[in-house]
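tool_log.txt
---
The assistant was asked to compare two proteins side by side. It first ran the structure predictor on the initial sequence, then on the second. Raw inputs and outputs are pasted verbatim so the downstream comparison step can read them without reformatting.
(1)
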Amino acid sequence: MTKIVFATGNQGKLREVKKILADLNVDIVSMKEEGIQIDVDENGTTFAENAQIKATAIGAHTDAIVLADDSGLVIDALNGEPGIYSARYLGEDTSYRIKNQNLIDRLEGVPDEKRTAHFVCAIAAALPDGTVLHTEGTIEGIIGYEERGENGFGYDPIFYVPKLGKTTAELTDDEKNAISHRGSALEKMKVLLREYIN
């Protein structure tokens, strides 16, 4: 069976990826499970660059296909912040409860129509032959006024999707995967990977 190493330590992300790629008939493992422990300096200027940097750096340590994503929250009223720094915003070890509250506070007094934001997910797949595949997905929404919902992770509790009337943390896994930025990018990647797996 083809093996895919997914470059993350985030169990929430790994669970999403395994669920979305379940019908590919591949063995998806984390870096830790593959025995790869390296720190990658994500010094790109775009989500796509960072995903490729991560995928190729880890690809040098395995014969498996390596999938890496770089994703983040882009808030229009804050000039695109936190953007590519989403994971490191206010410090990597800062809880998302604090990060979320900080963003809500910074948007105080900003009306709904100007609270627009989107999640972006860029995925790179480094193949053993040196080929790198790229896909990207987005989801549009607005920043809420408080955290809502217990599902998801990261900025999900403050990312409100008007057409659903819920934050992404209030969606079930299946609902979220059907519309999310990561779900969209992974579905596109699945199409590209089928050529190399079958």
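(2)
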Amino acid sequence: MALIDQGGSIRHGEELDIEKVDAWLRPFLPDLADGLPEVTQYSGGASNWTYRLKYANHDLILRRPPAGTKAKGAHDMSREYHVQKQLKAVYPVVADMIALCTDQAVIGSDFYIMRRIEGIIPRANLPKELTMSEAEVRQLCTNTLDQLIALHQIDYRAAGLESLGKGDGYCKRQIDGWCDRYNKVHTWNVPSYKGIQAWLKENTPADSATCVIHNDWRFDNVVLDPEHPTQVIGVLDWEMATLGDPLMELGNVLSYWTQASDKGVLRKTRRQPTHLAGMLTRDEVVKYYKAKTGVQIKHWAFYEVAGLFRVAAIVQQIYYRYYHKQTDNPAFKYFWLINWAIWRRCRQTIRADRG
């Protein structure tokens, strides 16, 4: 594993027509070096396709939707591009946007080009070349949380982002939406979540605030400074960014937060290095967020369960495709077990909340 995150070979069927991309790009970067770039593809993520275009004098990233999808909806390149372009002025860890292409004649889909942020991306495990002390791990943890807090404190109106989401009523919309999505993809071998859905609907609070939320905040969506790896120099993957409740986002963050004391399926499916000595526990994250923001949280259990149920629905959407033979990816075969593990954690959280 390389210390600096690198692209790899292009997956079969996901090749770029780089000649057309290069010709389209040159008017936006008149000093672009002669010749075609070296093209590689990033393997992380399960949504939009991401490529590195390495020229002699420019290091760039191209983002496009998977084949067969349309520009609008879940893979809206125009929206993702403009969100980052607007945020850059008030949130420096966003990449520099270069250009957006909506001409289907170039590669058959919308895409955009941004500058590559060279650094370390902390995935399930830190790179073997990176050795961090417990104190450094804690600093990495709190610095990452500080970037999340900074995002939540942006004046979205001053940044021109009023149209990013519907705003007030976010909590209710989220619970109703994820309940509907889960029920549509339920299979016989996973829990119904009916009791948990009822509990969430009965306990849905009014929004605590409205702010810009990333909506997929994980360690593998941040880029660390190679020289000072506790420092965050980039935040990636703004596909799901919107206006929403910051406490709902915090609940989503902790739904992926596998701590050292966790056992079983959830530990085995860990996606980020939150298990390392020095990382805050989930309870400590909530306390840290409260201390740094001054927010009052009256019923944290709701946000925790809401975040977990959202992940359960996402996992089930993927498993449903496997169950109905819409994909044969063997990685999805046992996703139903993850769903049961999430259900148990939801139940434990609700029981503890009731005392």
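---
observation on (2): The beta strands are 38-41, 49-54, 59-64, 97-101, 111-115, 211-213, 222-224, 232-235, 242-244. The first strand starts at residue 38 and ends at 41.
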